[in-house]
Amino acid sequence: MAVALAALLFSTSALAAPYLDSLRELSQRADVSALVIRLDDMSVIDEINADQRLTPASVSKLYAASAALEQFGPAHRFTSRLTSHGSVSGNTLNGDLVFVGGGDPALDNPRLWSLINRLRERGINRVNGNLIVDDGLFGSVPCLTKDRCDAQRVASHAYSSPLSSAGVNFATIQANVYPGERSGDAARVALHPIGLSGYNIDNEVTTGLPHTRPSLRVWRTYDGGRSTLHLRGALPMGTGPYEVHRAVTGPANDTARVLMAMLEDMGISVSGQPRVQTNAGGGDTLAYVESRTLAEQLIPLMAYSNNYMADTLTLDLAADSGYNRPLTLPLASQSLEALADRALRENFPSQATAGTGPIIESGSGLAVSNKLSARDLVALLSYMYRQPSLFPAFYGSIPVPLSAPSRTLKQGNFDWLTRINAKTGTLSEPVTVRALAGYFRLQSGGYGAFAFVINGTRSRPSLSYRQTVTAYQTDMEAILADY
């Protein structure tokens, strides 16, 4: 504690000449919270309203990743199982086959194929019973954000998928669209896995001439207990396939349909029907499959800013801690708030005052009710920097602009592209949100940390890319040039 206080005194007296000129100018017409420090001595390089708490968008995922690493450890794996209370006679299972969801944030078709193949390796090719999906680890998770609630009826994206401990493919439906052989032919649509039931296809995509610009619009609706995938547009012949993903209505029910199609394709017949039942597990484990390690999962979570993965991890923390079911994201996010408060008190004790602290109600940042300051974020980055067993996995998960899949940070000088690891955050409603937080390598070889959170205001809700991203990039490049 004495070291932290001494570092704090040094940081307040060692404030250098202002670097954040572009953000300082922006703060005259937008809400801006910014802080840049050197981590070894906690000296402040520059700051703007560092304690103002704003909507942070997807930089909230830094807390979900940190809390998961702290609670589970980088080598943790999630387990999905097939169980039954029935008996096996020859090649027949007499009883229900139960898939027990283990809260794997990245469970996908290839891992389900592996799971079913292990069941077949036991010699089972017939099930005299139902296929049941058990989502009891979380219970039925309610939708509490507008995006997720709206997506239950109409989904035009993948980012708003609902949550379940038994979800697969990030709770999305995958369709591949193939142009026809000749101009004017109808395109062909294939769902994955092949044989997946429960979807109507409303396809009006045509085939265009070679070298024409492709256009494809896809959305899913849910009405009368059935989902319909609507496709419109034109695709040039000789191209594709075009892969699309859209949020499903009910992730556990969708997993039941996926499993049913896979079992049939693998030659395992099920006499009954697929359905969802909470806490139907138990009995004997017939097959299981483990996820990739948590450290490995965090890399795509951060690189693609996967909302489903971040919020599923947040629910995993609550389930592991024994919270009552059904879980909700605000309840589960209390562990993230506790981490945020702890990090702030350990790294900036004089700024960690009693009263309202950091607010986190979603590990993904989809909830606009999340409120974090630049100091909150830098405190977390400092906290993880001082965890030798966790920092390598955490640091390694945060994208470097040069190799990141997102184009947001691709434009910049060589230092910008190679010397920072940064998580972005973006929302467009009800006001523009642009945020960036992460680490930068000092020319001396040490580390710095930075956080920029920008929100539009009620009077000026919309902010341009140039006003936001260009502003913090210009300022950060000036810091990199001197440090």
TrEMBL record:
SUPFAM superfamilies: beta-lactamase/transpeptidase-like. Residues 1-16 form the signal peptide. Pfam families: Peptidase_S13. NCBIfam families: PBP4 (TIGR00666). Keywords: Carboxypeptidase, Hydrolase, Protease, Signal. The lineage of its organism: Bacteria, Pseudomonadati, Pseudomonadota, Gammaproteobacteria, Salinisphaerales. One of its GO terms (molecular function) is carboxypeptidase activity. Coiled coil: none annotated. Belongs to the peptidase S13 family. This is D-alanyl-D-alanine carboxypeptidase/D-alanyl-D-alanine-endopeptidase. InterPro entries: Beta-lactam/transpept-like, Peptidase_S13.
